Amino acid sequence: DQQVKQNSPSLSVQEGRISILNCDYTNSMFDYFLWYKKYPAEGPTFLISISSIKDKNEDGRFTVFLNKSAKHLSLHIVPSQPGDSAVYFCAAKYNTDKLIFGTGTRLQVFP
Amino acid sequence: DTGVSQDPRHKITKRGQNVTFRCDPISEHNRLYWYRQTLGQGPEFLTYFQNEAQLEKSRLLSDRFSAERPKGSFSTLEIQRTEQGDSAMYLCASSRSGQGDTDTQYFGPGTRLTVL
User: Fold this and answer.
1) Does residue B45 sit at the A interface (CB-CB below 8 Å)?
2) Do B115 and B100 contact (CB within 8 A), yes or no?
3) How confident is the model at residue A41 (pLDDT cuts 50, 70, 90)?
4) Does B51 touch chain A (CB under 8 A)?
5) Which residues of A touch B110 (CB under 8 A)?
6) Judging by DSSP bridges, how do beta strands A19-25 and A72-77 pair with one another?
7) Which of A2, A37, B5, B35 is deepest in the core (most CB within 10 A)?
8) Torsion over CA: B85, B86, B90, B94 (sign)
9) Most A-contacting residue of B30, B39, B51, B104 (CB-CB within 10 A), to test interface
10) Contact B107, B3 (CB under 8 A)
11) Per-residue pLDDT at B101 exceeds 70
12) Whole-number Å distance between alpha carbons of B23 and B37
């Protein structure tokens, strides 16, 4: 039972353009969502989060959008840089601190 | 802020052996989590502690797995009688409770276990 889904295993974007990573969830009880970035042989690095009471949160080049009615969130990276090439995980939680992760999307930013 | 550290980074063992991993959280963080990640999957929750109390355990945590956090600081995760299916990256994370939505979990580099 995959409660958090990232249906695109990979995404390739040109440097300077926008990267849009998508995430869908099934559990309407989730009230907090996070995005992590992971490089090979390293642990996930926290990027940005959003509470279910908001529909947008920005931090520099990163913006997360939440559509509760569609149970969908997305991460926008503008402009994309080669150093953004990594695997991106969305995660969700409710009540407890246990994070439920998606399967990840591998982003490649090419020159 | 030295971040979350884990030791060892890599462990190769033979089936049936016991292994123990250590996690040192960020110093002011009172919550500590263990996750497991296999190839092509996201991290899966195993267990977490608030101070020295183990508050939740996943059904993934069979009786061969045990975790401790005896003094509310570092934690150990032991796997007894390892099986090939235990091969994975074991991730530790920590957070500071009481910050509401901002109880962000920060991850260590992980311990990669290979069971032969």
Assistant:
1) yes
2) no
3) confident
4) no
5) 42-43
6) antiparallel
7) B35
8) positive
9) B104
10) no
11) no
12) 16
